[in-house]
Amino acid sequence: MIIMYYTKINKEDFNMCECCGNHNESVVLNVKGMSCNHCVESIKSNIISLKGIKFVEINLQEAKVSVQYNPNDVKVEHIKEAIINAGYEIL
User: Fold this and answer.
1) How far, in Å, CA of 78 to CA of 17, rounded?
2) DSSP string, 3-45
3) Domains of the chain, CATH where assigned
4) Which long-range contacts (CB under 8 A, 24 or more apart) does 80-86 make?
5) Number of CB atoms found within 10 A of residue 84's CB
6) Which secondary-structure segment (H or E) carries 69?
7) Contact predicate 42/87, CB 8 Å
């Protein structure tokens, strides 16, 4: 039996920052260790606590975390650290 959990968080319009016109960037990370909805929620809450996060999508079945972010506010390394601090491994 395959359990799939899929969630999206839209914090703001993620195509372009309205105040400064900067384009947001996106990253898809493969994450090891996710096995349930609690894992998804733990990772999601750590990522969305970062300034500059516009969108988070987590696919439990594929073990992928997709994030759209403002590169002026947050870097990919910060997103990776948030996942690692939640107790998971980036592949």
Assistant:
1) 20
2) ---EEEEE-S--SB-TTT-PBPEEEEEEEES--SHHHHHHHHH
3) 6-90 (3.30.70.100)
4) 80/29, 82/43, 82/46, 82/47, 82/49, 82/50, 83/29, 83/31, 83/43, 83/46, 83/47, 85/46, 86/42, 86/43, 86/45, 86/46
5) 13
6) strand 64-69
7) yes
**Tokens representing residue 29 in the block:** 């990370």
Q: What are phi and psi of 78, to 5 degrees?
A: -70, -40
What's the chain's Rg over C-alpha atoms?
A: 13
Q: What are phi and psi of 79, to 5 degrees?
A: -65, -45
In tens, the pLDDT along 34-88 reads 999 999 999 999 999 999 999 999 999 999 999 999 999 999 999 999 999 999 9
